[in-house]
TrEMBL record:
UniProt source species: Cyanidium caldarium
Keyword Signal: yes
InterPro entries reported in the protein's UniProt record: DUF1499
Name this polypeptide is given: DUF1499 domain-containing protein
Keywords, ordered alphabetically: Signal
Signal peptide stretch: 1-19
Pfam family, one: DUF1499
């Protein structure tokens, strides 16, 4: 009877994988390599990356998870010109402390910022313009998550993502399209 612990089993599998001839290993076909990040993948599809269940995240596209959902923003009351609205969003992001735009085009912005919690982490901010609907969709998520031992529950960001997004939206004068708010 063969008895081994988890460590021995993993080392055995790792040894087998490393010893397997290169011809038997999976290699993706040319041009089918995975994007470098969830944000890069989402940009190629013109959607925002999803909010993982195990991270601090808020998104206007997380309709299936109410704890991670935030209403999309409407710029229609401020301007009828989507390009002017888009420029003002990019300017607001540049004025936001510690936010750096890393990728931008005519309908998508990806920015990064140091996380408030965990303190040495990074937050991703994504914005996607829907000009025909006069809407901006967004996502703000922590790349790194700390957990409460022994549970698989991430420690809260204490509303930091929501406050940062609200500050940006209020600076722009835009309103959230939330069905339960009275205007």
């Amino acid at each position: 009877m063969l008895v081994c612990n988890r460590r021995e089993a993993l080392l055995t599998l790792l040894g087998w994988a490393l010893a397997t001839p290169a011809a038997l290993r999976f290699t993706p076909a040319p041009g089918l390599t995975a994007p470098a990040s969830a944000a890069a993948s989402a940009k190629s599809r013109r959607t925002l990356a999803k909010c993982p269940a195990t991270s601090n995240c808020i998104s206007s596209t997380s309709v299936g998870n109410p704890s991670k959902y935030g209403a999309p923003w409407s710029f229609a009351e401020v301007t009828d010109d989507p390009q002017a609205a888009w420029r003002s969003l990019q300017e607001a992001l540049q004025q936001q402390p510690n936010v750096q735009i890393v990728e931008s085009d005519d309908a998508y912005v990806h920015a990064v910022s140091p996380s408030r919690f965990p303190s040495r982490g990074t937050d991703d901010l994504e914005f996607l313009m829907r000009p025909e609907e006069r809407l901006v969709l967004y996502r703000s998520a922590s790349r790194d998550t700390q957990y409460i031992y022994p549970f698989a529950q991430p420690l809260s960001d204490f509303g930091h993502h929501q406050r940062r997004l609200d500050e940006i939206r209020e600076r722009l004068g835009w309103r959230p399209l939330d069905w339960n708010q009275v205007y």
